[in-house]
């Protein structure tokens, strides 16, 4: 009984509860048809939100005002870079992935450079950076060989026993991220900065270095995500990352991470990622139009943040 | 009853607690019509808390407040303004993005409608001219562009402007702290004129001469209580100092004869504003006190030393790892989301690792060690830090610093609002750690704590003004050097 | 003690330099606009004409209105990431209901301003981060827009079309409209007595509360004003494009934030400038497409030009305040 209670006290549990409820509602509607396929599809799609969600989570955990608005542009550019470097050849897959990673990390580093050098809030820094990245992407992505190598496309769609391999790898990655958050100096430092940046400095945390690392990490994850998306959808395009601006922030918030900073958890990102994908599946199954889908997504985000907002009144 | 009606404001048995800290402990206080009351006491004596109550910004936890003889059941800022009671707060309350005239408008709802800008500008200009002739401030100046002294002048003048609301009592909390001698004199003579014309005033100041010369009656506070109240003529400087310091009944800490051989140099630092060649020097095993009034550069120097430990700075030499014990726990020390153990471990993460990961076992061991050593009273070190009382939170911050590899420990007035039992335990620990070779730089506003120090630097206006050895260390001497009226 | 009292050091200098830095920063928006205009005049002198301005500043009015909308929330230290999709939503309402059933159309638009006011209250009462709330709302507005107008289409009401195609003598309409918007908002926010309170709430909220003002009310008013100018922006946009599309306003979120910052506004501290914001919007409108076209730069780089201008202006600002220190 106590274990159930401690489980219910975890901030991330509700995102999983939400995902399960939505899933049950959908299969009740279809009469059980396609229950397994739905999970498989949800896992494959949630992966992309989870990867950038983890990056965004670290950034948001740095404290109020920290957010990376350049992720969509970053994903778009990295997907083009990856596809161009791979050039449709299976032998270049790894090089292409590394190129996407480097491209994303560079964008993240530039973001922090703008924040630090121009002393401007992260929102406006990542925003202006995203303007420029977007244009680079548009002009760079034009007339390119944009299809992924067949091996890469197959890899991103590969399933074993109905479970996407990419999802398994992402689970391993998120376990690593959770360890980094709770058990490594890096994660502890991020949490400390998010709770109280001045106290963190006075407790000997290397504030500047940690913030730089966090923005670079978030950028790098955006880069990898772009490459994987291009493989999964068998092609890169400028708009491929567009939905990940809101999605990355939404999974962080719904997953129980505090927007006020200093309090984060990785499982919630998975729960919220699955919840969002399953919610879309459910609304599609119900035959709801695109407008209602967007409307409900928005209302749920506003509802969740309103419900969660009360906690942080305790200072 | 006649007496009560002549009062502008009267508090009976006012009490206020902040968590475990008793800021006010049953205070009786009143201000009569046409009277200037001087309020003096050390930092943390409860003056500001008392004034917040009179101004309506804080509600008392116990006691009554009466204005002009009427009990006020639901007293608030709005009610205070309505009754003609205003306060110039110590922390500036101008909007830095607005002009002087616009800032005046904020305090006067009736400054609206046609031509309000001109009326506001004329109102504040006339009052500035009256109080500070030759002030050189334009009503169109943006508040944020003004020097801190001029901002204070605007704020004071604004409190005396009159539109619809009456004006009976103005509370001036350290009104001259940012003014030079000339403008301070202008202000004080205006206050005397205002009082002579029948207005009332509460004057809080650390400059004792100001209070002695301008107040009709002086109230001395100490430890949340009124310890003396008498006509100003009945006080002189020495009697005020004695009443504030409370020389009565505190025993000097056991002054063991400590070995005085000079150890290796740990810190050498010169305050930025220092003009002569005085500098702070600390060696291994020494406990160095930083004394003087609050906000006279002690914390700034500690912070410079702290940052010099990681990045070289001119004028400061630091030869060993540094840790800091914060005095303002909320803003400088506590990580509110974390357990006690995590709060202690943050300074020592590198040593708590096994491999890449922080070992929960080692973290728990560190926490348990300090729980026993420093006596943190909690059933479980994994409880949230806020489950502790204020004194025990402070012990956890000490454990964070003492449990680290730091050989130099900076203490930024860490005993603010801590109970006496905790204090004595920590004093013993500090002496014990110093005997082992650690160096302590201890800024404190509580004079008796300086008895633990080997020698003491007294600060004034950001500079070191005195270096007192252990044998010449007396309360009077410290107060004398830190109050040294430069006016 | 011969120590120099703090006040006897020359006093005028810090204020003088602060005021000078502020003036320089205040001139920066106008300077950037002049620079862009000069570049256009140099590249294509014929563009500097009644007709040329009408064409180049075609979309400047809705951008300026959206920027003003964003400026109001920024004045209260908040941010609206939903203004773009809100403009799109208003556009869809304008091109359908406002033409077919004017009463319903008007009620819906007024209701949407009410929603903004409610958001302000919600954000204040629950102490919510406006970024997340408005990000969620951006989906709500977009969803509603798609529900109203699933496919691009609709038509603006005749009266709106005739207002937006108004051709006054001598001065091109967009310039006239920009002047009018700047003057009205400047008066309302910078000159009226309640405008002072609104800006003060961003400058020092605690001081305002101590003086007895309601911060809930200021937040509601600021958000409602954002809603109002968002509505005006959406209507103006449809008056120019004549038909609507649910995604028509999406770019306005970023444009409006950039416009406020270009115009000398700051994210915190209640420091905003309506005139600056309108100038910022005009600069963006000119720099984005006409200038690039004349420079023979492909339209791909339009967005980058906005980002680059933003970064250059912010860098210039840092330089100015650093030198004046």
TrEMBL record, chain A:
Entry keyword set: Cell membrane, Membrane, Transmembrane, Transmembrane helix
Pfam families: BPD_transp_2 (PF02653)
Topological type in the membrane: Multi-pass membrane protein
Keyword Membrane on entry: yes
TM regions (residue ranges): 12-35, 41-62, 93-115, 122-140, 160-181, 212-232, 244-262, 269-286, 292-310
Keyword Cell membrane (UniProt): yes
Compartments in which it is found: Cell membrane
Protein name: ABC transporter permease
């Amino acid at each position: 009984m106590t274990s159930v209670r401690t489980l219910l006290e975890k901030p991330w549990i509700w995102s999983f509860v939400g995902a399960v409820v939505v899933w049950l509602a959908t299969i009740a509607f279809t009469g059980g048809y396609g229950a397994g396929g739905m999970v498989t599809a949800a896992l494959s799609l949630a992966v992309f939100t989870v990867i950038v969600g983890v990056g965004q989570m670290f950034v948001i955990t740095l404290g109020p005002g920290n957010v990376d608005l350049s992720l969509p542009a970053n994903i778009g550019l990295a997907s083009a870079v990856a596809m161009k470097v791979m050039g449709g050849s299976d032998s270049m897959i790894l090089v292409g992935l590394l190129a996407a990673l480097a491209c994303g990390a560079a964008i993240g580093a530039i973001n922090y450079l703008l924040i630090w050098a121009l002393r401007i809030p992260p929102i406006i820094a990542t925003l202006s950076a995203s303007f420029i990245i977007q244009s680079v992407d548009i002009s760079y992505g034009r007339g390119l060989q944009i299809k992924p190598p067949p091996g890469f496309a197959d890899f991103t769609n590969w399933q074993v026993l109905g479970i996407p391999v990419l999802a398994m790898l992402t689970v391993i990655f998120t376990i690593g991220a959770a360890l980094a958050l709770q058990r490594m100096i890096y994660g502890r430092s991020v949490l400390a900065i998010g709770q109280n940046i001045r106290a963190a400095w006075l407790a000997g945390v290397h504030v500047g270095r940690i913030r730089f690392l966090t923005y670079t990490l978030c950028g790098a994850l955006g880069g990898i995500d772009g490459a994987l998306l291009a493989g999964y959808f068998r092609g890169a395009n400028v708009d491929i990352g567009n939905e990940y601006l809101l999605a990355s922030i939404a999974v962080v918030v719904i997953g129980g991470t505090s927007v006020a900073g200093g309090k984060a958890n990785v499982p919630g990102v998975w729960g919220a990622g699955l919840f969002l994908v399953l919610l879309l599946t459910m609304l599609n199954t119900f035959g709801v139009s695109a407008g209602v889908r967007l409307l409900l997504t928005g209302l749920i985000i506003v509802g969740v943040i309103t419900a969660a907002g009360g906690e942080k009144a305790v200072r | 009853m006649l007496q009560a009606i002549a009062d502008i404001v009267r508090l009976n048995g006012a009490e206020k607690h902040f968590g475990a800290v008793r800021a006010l402990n049953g205070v009786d206080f009143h201000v009569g019509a046409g009277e200037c009351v001087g309020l003096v006491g050390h930092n943390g004596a409860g003056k500001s808390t008392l004034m917040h109550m009179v101004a309506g910004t804080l509600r008392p936890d116990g006691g009554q407040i009466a204005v002009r003889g009427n009990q006020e059941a639901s007293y608030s800022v709005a009610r205070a303004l309505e009754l003609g009671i205003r306060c110039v707060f110590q922390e500036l309350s101008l909007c830095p993005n607005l002009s002087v005239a616009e800032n005046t408008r904020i305090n006067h709802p009736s400054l609206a409608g046609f031509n309000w800008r001109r009326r506001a500008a004329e109102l504040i200009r006339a009052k500035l001219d009256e109080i500070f002739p030759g002030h050189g401030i334009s009503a169109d100046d943006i508040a944020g562009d003004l020097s801190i002294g001029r901002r204070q002048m605007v704020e004071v003048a604004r409190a005396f402007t009159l539109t619809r609301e009456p004006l009976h009592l103005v509370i001036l909390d350290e009104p001259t702290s940012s003014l030079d001698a000339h403008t301070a004199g202008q202000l004080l003579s205006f206050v005397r004129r205002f009082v002579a014309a029948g207005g009332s005033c509460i004057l809080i100041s650390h400059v004792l001469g100001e209070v002695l010369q301008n107040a009709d009656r002086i109230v001395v506070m100490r430890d949340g209580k009124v310890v003396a109240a008498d006509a100003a003529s009945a006080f002189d400087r020495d009697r005020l100092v004695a009443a504030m310091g409370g020389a009565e009944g505190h025993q000097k800490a056991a002054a063991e004869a400590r070995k005085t051989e000079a150890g290796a140099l740990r810190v050498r630092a010169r305050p930025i504003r220092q003009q002569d060649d005085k500098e702070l020097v600390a060696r291994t095993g020494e406990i160095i006190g930083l004394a003087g009034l609050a906000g006279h550069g002690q914390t700034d120097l500690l912070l410079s030393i702290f940052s010099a430990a990681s990045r070289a700075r001119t004028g400061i030499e630091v030869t060993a790892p540094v840790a800091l014990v914060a005095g303002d726990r909320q803003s400088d020390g506590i990580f509110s989301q974390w357990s006690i153990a995590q709060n202690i471990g943050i300074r020592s993460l590198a040593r708590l690792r096994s491999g890449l990961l922080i070992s929960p076992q080692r973290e728990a061991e560190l926490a348990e060690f300090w729980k026993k050593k420093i006596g943190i009273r909690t059933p479980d070190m994994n409880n949230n830090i806020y489950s502790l009382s204020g004194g025990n939170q402070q012990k956890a911050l000490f454990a964070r610093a003492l449990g680290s590899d730091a050989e130099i420990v900076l203490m930024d007035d860490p005993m603010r609002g801590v109970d006496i039992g905790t204090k004595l335990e920590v004093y013993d620990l500090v002496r014990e750690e110093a005997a082992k070779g650690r160096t302590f730089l201890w800024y404190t506003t509580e004079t008796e704590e300086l008895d633990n120090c080997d020698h003491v630097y007294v600060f004034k206006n950001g500079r070191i003004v005195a270096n007192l050895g252990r044998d010449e260390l007396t309360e009077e001497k410290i107060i004398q050097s830190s109050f040294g009226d430069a006016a | 003690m011969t120590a120099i009292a703090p006040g006897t050091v020359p006093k005028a200098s810090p204020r003088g330099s602060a005021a000078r830095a502020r003036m320089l920063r205040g001139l920066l928006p106008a300077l950037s606009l002049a620079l862009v205009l000069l570049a256009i005049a140099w590249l294509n002198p014929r563009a500097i004409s009644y007709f040329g301005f009408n064409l180049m500043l075609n979309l400047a009015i809705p951008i300026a209105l959206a920027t003003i909308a964003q400026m109001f929330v920024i004045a209260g230290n908040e941010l609206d990431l939903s203004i773009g999709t809100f403009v799109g939503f208003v556009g869809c309402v304008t091109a359908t209901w406002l033409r077919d059933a004017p009463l319903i159309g008007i009620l819906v638009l007024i209701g949407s301003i009410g929603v903004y006011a409610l958001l302000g209250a919600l954000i204040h009462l629950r102490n919510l981060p406006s970024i997340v709330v408005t990000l969620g709302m951006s989906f709500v507005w977009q969803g509603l827009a798609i529900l109203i107008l699933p496919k691009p289409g609709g038509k603006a009401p005749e009266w709106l079309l005739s207002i937006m195609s108004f051709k006054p003598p001598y001065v091109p309409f967009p310039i006239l409209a920009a002047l009018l918007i700047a003057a009205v908002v400047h008066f309302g926010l910078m000159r009226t007595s309640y405008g002072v309170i609104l800006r003060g709430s961003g400058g020092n909220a605690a001081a305002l509360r101590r003086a007895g003002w309601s911060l809930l009310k200021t937040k509601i008013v600021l958000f409602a004003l954002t809603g109002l100018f968002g509505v005006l922006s959406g209507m103006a946009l449809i008056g120019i494009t004549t038909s609507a599309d649910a995604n028509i306003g999406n770019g306005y979120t970023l444009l409006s934030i950039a416009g406020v910052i270009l115009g000398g506004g700051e994210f915190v501290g209640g420091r905003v400038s309506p005139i600056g914001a309108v100038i910022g919007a005009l600069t963006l409108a000119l720099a984005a497409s006409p200038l690039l076209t004349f420079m023979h730069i492909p339209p791909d780089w339009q967005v980058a030009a906005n980002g680059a201008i933003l970064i250059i202006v912010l860098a210039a600002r840092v330089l100015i305040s650093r030198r004046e220190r």
